[in-house]
Amino acid sequence: MNQTKEKQKYTVPALENAFSILRLLSRNRFKESTITEISNALNLNPATCYRLLRVMEEMAIVRYMDEKKRYTLGPYLVVLGERAKEHLDYLLVIQPYLERLTKETQMTSILVNKINEQKLAIVSKAEASDFGVTVSVGRHFSITDGSFGLCLLAYLDEEKRAAILEQNTGLRPYSPHEIARIKKECEALRKRGFHITYGEYIKGVCGIAAPIFTEGGKVDLSIELIGFTSRHDEEDLQEKGRLIKEAANEISRKLSGNE
Questions:
Q1: CA 212, CA 251: separation in Å to the nearest integer?
Q2: Which long-range contacts (CB under 8 A, 24 or more apart) does 241-244 make?
Q3: What is the mean pLDDT of the chain?
Q4: Where does the chain hold its CATH 3.30.450.40 domain(s)?
Q5: Confidence band (pLDDT; 50, 70, 90) for 4?
Q6: Contact 154, 189 (CB under 8 A)
Q7: Bridge pairing between strands 108-114 and 119-126
């Protein structure tokens, strides 16, 4: 008889609500928000929201702007962010590859990290200096968005992937026909090692992404090159796809301990 127990899920409402506030304030739309705006957006009791914000203000993880009567992210988060970067060894491994890819291709390079079953975040970048696409570290996306998302979606089991696609939480909804097409694209990505988008998600923007494998063949990371379709034709992207695949393979070997 299998005695393995499922990992128990614990909930701490105050902690979860505090973190929801931080996530909300990290979004451009809510970067400076009143208590009413925060409580409405998160469906929190205003009194609870106020108490949480006061404690977080004392810890300097949020800041109250007296002149505007609004809250924004606090200065101590900068300290935590810098410490996190120092402790996440994979960032030190991958950043030189992003800079090299940007130099070789004149496209912006990004590293995307899975943060839960359906969400990704940009955790590092190297922006092209001349007419390159500008991105923000910390920006969140759905796992169904772009080439970088498909790189992670392709390595989920088929049932989980279908359930996520049907929820339509990404930049655009998918029809049943498009979901069938994405299934084929996932199969092609696993064989080819990279995936190209050409204006399908954001008009005028193209991307080439490749998955990164860590220990045990886990795929929680991908790297992508982003540029404007006006500067890169699809044939050009095929060659750049080979470059990003080589870089992803090298990174994968280092992170999985095979080099």
A1: 7
A2: 241/192, 241/194, 241/196, 241/208, 241/210, 242/194, 243/101, 243/104, 243/105, 244/101, 244/194, 244/208, 244/209, 244/210
A3: 87
A4: 88-255
A5: very low
A6: yes
A7: antiparallel
CA distance 78 to 257: 31
In tens, the pLDDT along 172-205 reads 777 888 888 888 999 999 999 999 998 877 788 9
Residue keyed to tokens 């409402």: 13
**CATH fold for domain 13-78:** Arc Repressor Mutant, subunit A (1.10.10)
Report the 10 Å Cβ neighbour count for 63. 17
What is the Cα–Cα distance from 42 to 171, expressed in whole angstroms?
21
pLDDT average, residue stretch 212-237:
90
State residue 145's pLDDT score.
Answer: 87
- Give the tens place of pLDDT for each residue, 28-63: 889 999 999 999 999 999 999 999 999 999 999 999
Q: What class does CATH assign to 88-255?
A: alpha beta
- Residues 6+ positions from 144 with CB-CB distance below 8 Å: 118, 153, 164, 165, 168, 169, 170, 174
Ramachandran area for residue 114 (φ above 0: left; ψ -120 to 50: alpha; else beta)? beta
> Cβ contacts of residue 258 below 8 Å, gap of 6+?
252
